[in-house]
From TrEMBL:
<feature type="transmembrane region" description="Helical">
    <location>
        <begin position="301"/>
        <end position="322"/>
    </location>
</feature>
<feature type="transmembrane region" description="Helical">
    <location>
        <begin position="272"/>
        <end position="294"/>
    </location>
</feature>
<dbReference type="InterPro" id="IPR001750">
    <property type="entry name" value="ND/Mrp_TM"/>
</dbReference>
<dbReference type="GO" id="GO:0050136">
    <property type="term" value="F:NADH dehydrogenase (quinone) (non-electrogenic) activity"/>
</dbReference>
<feature type="transmembrane region" description="Helical">
    <location>
        <begin position="448"/>
        <end position="468"/>
    </location>
</feature>
<dbReference type="GO" id="GO:0042773">
    <property type="term" value="P:ATP synthesis coupled electron transport"/>
</dbReference>
<feature type="transmembrane region" description="Helical">
    <location>
        <begin position="208"/>
        <end position="230"/>
    </location>
</feature>
<dbReference type="GO" id="GO:0048038">
    <property type="term" value="F:quinone binding"/>
</dbReference>
<feature type="transmembrane region" description="Helical">
    <location>
        <begin position="328"/>
        <end position="350"/>
    </location>
</feature>
<dbReference type="InterPro" id="IPR010096">
    <property type="entry name" value="NADH-Q_OxRdtase_suN/2"/>
</dbReference>
<feature type="transmembrane region" description="Helical">
    <location>
        <begin position="403"/>
        <end position="427"/>
    </location>
</feature>
<feature type="transmembrane region" description="Helical">
    <location>
        <begin position="84"/>
        <end position="101"/>
    </location>
</feature>
<keyword id="KW-0874">Quinone</keyword>
<dbReference type="GO" id="GO:0008137">
    <property type="term" value="F:NADH dehydrogenase (ubiquinone) activity"/>
</dbReference>
<keyword id="KW-0472">Membrane</keyword>
<dbReference type="Pfam" id="PF00361">
    <property type="entry name" value="Proton_antipo_M"/>
</dbReference>
<keyword id="KW-1003">Cell membrane</keyword>
Length: 487
């Protein structure tokens, strides 16, 4: 192994590690008064890390030249694509945090440091080509996430969300670890490449059980049904900037990790996991849509929306083709922008005392008092529903197209039918915004940074977003090709 080459390939993780440790020392010496400075420095660190990983995506790097530390880490175009989404989402989540926490009674300086270490763990997850690297990255992200969920001391729901997330997350990690141990026992290695080679031909019962347990653990991390039970409670109870973070960056990391495990490590046994993914996909679409209909809290509705959208993304994975993987990455990119726009809009919903307004009924008539905010929130809802000409339609279109191309016409048909059900609860929010009698609860204004993210997201999900389809599709295809070349 060439140590110089390996250390060069992990430059982004090295930089985030050093940055996190330095910022932790700043927090210890300067206290919470340095919180805003630490936040901006953490965002800058994420931007630099993005610059470090971008060349791998632009150059379409894969194979041996992207492998580090005896094949335990891959700095290929696929990981680069996922990391750019992770760093961008984490940076946006950090930018909206100071104003929220200061209104809630104090912004703690360790918040951006925890987010930085979570991003570091997510980077390891998407670059993992060994089960041990996978688990280390997963736990680094999870340990930071548990604390972030319980960060707000002024809201009793926050510690409850952190505790629920910790207990259920620990259970999922245990199940995942058991699956890894079974896979190691029957494949003889923890390396994805060795597992891929060992599982050629008929799959043993033990290996199948290992695969099932691994998929169960990963399904929890991506909030897929029937392992979604934590999502609505954690999304509602966690501080809204943390919910913004959970809905974007960790979602990207978990889905990208699921793609690498299934398409690469278990790539020779697609018929074994394909039917599981199809079932999880359909359940997530249906349960996410039906569960959202009766929600009165906008954050819980967004939680079920997240479950629903994960189901649509898994249609691309079920195709088990390069086109399916690329469509999944396109959808994931659009979903991140929609989620950021939606949660920044929710952050801007405040009453006269500066408290967050989360009840959907309290948004009645918002279009008359805050027309710009209502318009962007309505755009997000229409885009999440996949209604053209908004950009969210393109995400659904490409995954359905990949499913049809792979011969999964029944899956695409059911998905299209279920998307009509999902449109109901999105349209319900729009109806409250524009047609109900004004509740006059929301009086706060949109802050500077919030406005940039809010209206920037609105521009991307508008029809203008279609100008980027060729560029985004090309990058997604380059990233997906790295998985299948390795296989």
């Amino acid at each position: 192994m060439n140590w110089a080459s390996s250390l060069r390939l992990v430059a982004a993780e090295e930089f985030l590690s050093v940055s996190g440790l330095v910022l932790l020392l700043v927090c210890a010496w300067a206290g919470d008064k340095s919180a805003r400075l630490v936040t901006w420095l953490a965002v800058a660190a994420l931007a630099v890390a993005g610059v470090l990983v971008a060349p791998a995506l632009c150059g379409g790097v894969f194979g041996a030249e992207a492998s580090a530390f005896y094949g335990q880490y891959a700095a290929d175009s696929f990981s680069s694509f996922a990391k750019l989404l992770i760093y961008g989402a984490a940076g946006a989540s950090l930018l909206v945090a100071p104003g929220f926490f200061e209104r809630q009674g104090g912004y703690r300086a360790e918040y951006p440091v925890l987010a930085l270490f979570a991003a570091l763990g997510m980077g390891l997850m998407v670059s993992a080509t060994d089960m041990l690297t996978l688990y280390v990255g997963l736990e680094m992200n999870s340990l930071a996430a548990y604390v972030l969920a319980a960060m707000s001391r002024s809201d009793d729901r926050s510690p409850e969300a952190g505790l629920k997330y910790f207990v259920l997350g620990s259970l999922a990690s245990g199940i995942l670890l058991f699956g890894i141990s079974l896979t190691y026992g029957f494949a003889g290695s923890t390396s994805f490449d060795a597992i891929h080679t060992a599982l050629v031909g008929k799959m043993s019962t033990g290996s199948l059980f290992g695969l099932v347990f691994i998929l169960v653990g990963l399904s929890f991390k991506i909030s897929a049904v029937p392992f979604h039970m934590w999502t609505p409670d954690v999304y509602e109870g966690a501080p809204t900037p943390v919910t913004t973070f959970f809905a974007t960056a960790p979602k990207v990391a978990a889905l990208a990790l699921t793609m690498r495990v299934t398409l690469f490590a278990f790539g020779m046994q697609a018929q074994a996991w394909q039917q599981i993914v199809v079932a999880i996909s359909l359940l997530s679409i249906v349960v996410g849509a039906l569960g959202a209909i009766g929600q009165g809290n906008i954050k819980r509705l967004m939680a079920y929306s997240s479950i629903n959208n994960v189901g649509f993304m898994l249609i691309g994975l079920a195709a088990a083709t390069p086109g399916g993987a690329a469509s999944m990455l396109v959808y994931l990119s659009i979903y991140v922008v929609m989620s950021i726009g939606g949660f920044v809009a929710i952050l801007s919903l405040r009453d006269a005392e500066g408290n967050s307004v989360e009840k959907i009924a309290d948004l009645a008539g918002l279009s008359r008092s805050k027309p710009g905010l209502a318009f962007v929130l309505a755009m997000v809802m229409f885009s999440l529903a996949g209604i053209p000409p908004l950009f969210g339609f393109w995400g659904k279109f490409v995954v359905f197209q990949s499913a049809v191309a792979a011969g999964l016409v029944p899956l695409a048909t059911v998905g299209i039918a279920a998307s009509v059900i999902g449109a109901f609860y999105y349209l319900k929010v729009v109806k409250v915004l524009y047609f109900d009698e004004p509740a006059d609860k929301v009086v706060g204004s949109v802050d500077g940074v919030h406005a940039v993210l809010l209206y920037g997201s609105a521009i991307v999900i508008s029809p203008i977003g279609y100008l980027f389809t060729g560029w985004l599709g090309g990058l997604a295809q380059s990233a997906a090709a790295a998985l299948f070349h390795a296989a």
